[in-house]
Amino acid sequence: MPDSESSPSFKPGRVYNRREDLHGHYGGQRQGGISTPADRDLIFLFTSAAGQEYGYKDEFRPDGIFWYTGEGQEGDMEMTRGNQSIRDHQEDGKRLHLFEALGEGQVRYIGRATYLDHHWEDRPDAYGEMRSAVVFELAVEPTEDQDRDDVEEQVEESGGSNQRWWTRPQGELRALALQESTSSVSEEEARQRSYQRSKAVQIYVKKRADGICEGCGKEAPFVTPQERPYLETHHVRRVSDGGPDHPRWVIALCPNCHRRVHHGQDGETYNEQLGKKLGKIELSPSS
Ligand SMILES: [Zn+2]
Predict the structure, then answer these.
(1) Out of 37, 79, 105, 122, which could bridge 27 as a Cys pair, Cβ 3.0 to 4.6 Å?
(2) What is the mean pLDDT of each run of 10 residues along the chain (287 residues)?
(3) Distance from residue 233's CA to the centre of ligand 1 (Å)
(4) Parallel, antiparallel, or unpaired for β 106-124 and 34-35?
């Protein structure tokens, strides 16, 4: 019985009853770590300290990125179902909401998450057999979720407060984007920084592109309600290979080029080409 089509507002730190407060209102699978309510613009992710015993070790890394283990209890994990829904959430217009399971059906809201990348690791499955597991690299935003009309550009266009980001000079954005990560900060601060950094990178990169797809060189296909050319950001490299949240590894693409990277037959080759292009772009910034 969905009350309305508008997105819910969860408060970080607040405890919810998973079955009643989440699935009772929004639907979705009541078991498991990834729950994908049908016909909703949201996906619930649950992380649990208890999962560690079963090879589901999730954690905030020193750089503030949250590593979240995908689903699949036995054998190699696959990029299907819940796992696929995390990878494609931005293209699908869905928001990721991350909760921490506290036991007895209670969950605490951590914040909204955004997929940055994923990698594969060898981890034991439910029977202790080693298998290939997908680990998602997520930016987590520990602030209250806002109702928004535009889910497509969720991170980039979060309404009024975003204006502040867009009016920052490129140099300032770049400095924020390159902010050093240190391990001496609190987990909370690490999350804040991760969010700030990824936001700064996204906006810096879009401003750098200046309305032109950095892949095919064509103009952005349309403008947003904020009258900005619509482009998407894409990380050409994995976190583990040197950090996706660096302008050197993030490119602004039109939706066509972005889909080509993820779904094209030549997606991997194209991605490599984009990486090379970025090397030239960032060596000689146009502004
Ligand atoms: Zn393009």
Answers:
(1) 37
(2) 55 90 94 92 89 73 83 92 93 90 90 87 88 91 44 40 73 75 65 74 90 96 88 75 67 93 90 90 59
(3) 11
(4) unpaired
The CATH number of domain 15-141 is 2.30.280.20: yes
Supply 112's token pair. 């909204």
What is the residue whose two structure tokens read 């034991």? 124
Q: Which amino acid is at 135?
A: V
Q: Give pTM, 2 decimals.
A: 0.55
- For residue 111, give both structure tokens: 């914040």
The two tokens of residue 189 are 């601060």
The CA 255 to ligand 1 mean position distance, Å, reads 7
Instruction: List every span in the chain annotated with CATH 2.30.280.20.
Output: 15-141
pLDDT of res. 161? 55
Q: Which residues surround ligand 1, an ion (CB under 5 A)?
A: 213, 215-216, 254, 257
**pLDDT on residue 285:** 45
Task: List the structure tokens of 103.
Answer: 């036991």
Alpha carbons 202 and 210: distance in angstroms, whole number:
13
- Asked if residue 65 lies in contact with residue 116, where contact means CB atoms within 8 angstroms, the answer is yes
C-alpha dist (Å) from residue 277 to 63, 151, 219, 235, 284: 26, 29, 17, 13, 11
The rounded Å distance from CA 271 to ligand 1 centre is: 12
Dist. CA 260 → ligand 1 center (Å): 9
Comparing CA positions, the residue from 244, 111, 232 lying closest to residue 177 is 244
Whether the Cβ atoms of residue 150 and residue 224 lie closer than 8 Å to each other: yes
